[in-house]
Amino acid sequence: PLIAHLEVFCQFSDPQSLYLEPELFKLYNQLLCHVNENVQKAALDCVLSYKHPHVLPYKERLERLLQDRHFKDEIVHFSISEETSVVKPEHRADLMPVLMRLLYGRMRSKTGSKTEGKAAAGTRMAIVLRFLAGSQNEEIHMYLDLLYEPVSHLKDGSCLAMVQQSVEQLDLSKVLPLGRQHNIYNSLEVALKNLGHLVLSYLPKILQILLCMTASVTQALEQRSKVKQIQSIIFNSFIILNL
């Protein structure tokens, strides 16, 4: 199991000496965003095993953010705004990437039944975004990059060129599922409502991503006949196999 492997890796006293260490460290950081808080906790233990002087002092606070019973209290006391920040200025550059990833994972996680889980996730998202209002500009960009990671390639290059590429190079087999696209749109709406002026400098990227996604969906809908042809071929293949 994934968690069992992570629990082994976090025991190493000198993690930087491990084989393929850069790839492992990258994996730990990716898993900090996981929707399962137990995976997040195991990944955090691996990151903390590096004993980084700018991250280790916040160990207990980071761990409490991963506990449902302590989450709301801790996020209130874990202030990052300039006036009341508990984070030393010289620590922010190394701590904030870890904190942002943990909060992104927490925002996406669901608990309880399907209905209760969605409600809890919505409440948690609002709490996280209010907390992020104390972030600095580049830190907000870091969080938005996590939010748009599935479509991050769409913000590169010029807007017109990327929209044209989204249409001309569309591959139906690689189109992001509509459910995931819907989640991105919802997250954007909530982020804009809660972060407001803090995302102004990111708006051109947001617009470019939205235009490219819209162009891809429009082009995909225009190719529905191809999808139906493929479905027909597959259906006929099943008939032949049954014979």
Automatic annotation (TrEMBL):
GO cellular component: 90S preribosome; small-subunit processome
InterPro entries: ARM-type_fold, SSU_processome_comp_20, UTP20_N
Pfam families, sorted: UTP20_N
Domain U3 small nucleolar RNA-associated protein 20 N-terminal residues, every copy: 2-228
Protein name stated in the entry: U3 small nucleolar RNA-associated protein 20 N-terminal domain-containing protein
Native source species: Engystomops pustulosus (Tungara frog)
Native organism taxonomy: Eukaryota, Metazoa, Chordata, Craniata, Vertebrata
